[in-house]
Specification:
It is a single chain. The chain is α/β, with parallel strands linked by helices. It has 2 domains: 4-115, Resolvase, N-terminal catalytic domain (Rossmann fold, 3-Layer(aba) Sandwich), CATH 3.40.50.1390; 149-183. It is built from 7 helices and 5 strands, in the order E-H-E-H-E-H-E-E-H-H-H-H. The protein has a 5-stranded mixed β-sheet, with helices on both faces. Helix 3 links the parallel strand 3 (61-64) and strand 4. Helix 3 (74-87) packs across helix 4 (103-136). The protein is elongated and about 85 Å long. It starts with a strand and ends in a 12-residue tail after the last helix. Keywords: DNA integration, DNA recombination, DNA-binding. The active site is at 11 (o-(5'-phospho-dna)-serine intermediate).
């Protein structure tokens, strides 16, 4: 029989791990089999989680106090548990009473995986429907252009005059020099050098 290894995480230094650690200790996890991070699940690198996942061997069980302590999102959680399953590692969440070592626990987790896939498909469909609706109204995706057609014509005229610095044109239209070069890629005559 494998080892039971615990993982705990809090998002900020203001929060503390006591509640999670107490729950993990009650579940039989000893301090030498505990990993914990103080990091935002969304942004920060979770070094202790990486070490924990690396330490797990076939037959072991990863135990967390609550599902949201492990995954950044439902798809992330499903991905991690799927990787554990491939390694022959069971997963247990104490609060939700999910344990993938049993047939019932596996079933519950497969329902979560289906929900995660459903959520991804819904987001994709909504995005595509929104873009289609915008196109039907004559709008395309992306940012509104910084310059209108009239301004671009004026810039092209100004760019053909080598005595006007590009920085002056950019300042006048409140855009960067790069934007000026993009809309008016005409070559300016080189100023004549004095001998």
């Amino acid at each position: 029989m494998g080892q039971r290894i615990g993982y705990a995480r809090v998002s900020t230094d203001d929060q503390n791990l006591d509640l999670q650690l107490d729950g993990l200790h009650k579940a039989g996890i000893t301090d030498d089999h505990l990993y914990s991070d103080t990091a935002s699940g969304k942004d920060a690198e979770r070094k202790e989680l990486a070490a924990c996942l690396k330490a797990l061997r076939e037959g072991d069980t990863l135990v967390v106090w609550r599902l949201d302590r492990l995954g950044r999102s439902l798809p992330d959680l499903v991905r991690i548990v799927g990787e554990l399953e491939q390694k022959g590692v069971s997963f247990e969440s104490l609060t939700e009473k999910i344990e993938t070592g049993s047939a019932a626990g596996k079933l519950v987790f497969h329902v979560f995986a289906a929900l995660a896939e459903f959520e991804r498909n819904l987001i994709r469909e909504r995005t595509q429907a929104g873009l289609a609706a915008a196109r039907a109204r004559g709008r395309s995706g992306g940012r509104k252009p910084k310059l209108d057609t009239q301004q671009i014509k004026e810039i092209m005229r100004l760019m053909s005059d080598p005595s006007i610095p590009v920085s002056t044109i950019a300042k006048r239209y409140q855009v960067s020099r790069t934007t000026i070069y993009k809309v008016a890629p005409v070559r300016r005559p080189e100023p004549k050098r004095q001998p």
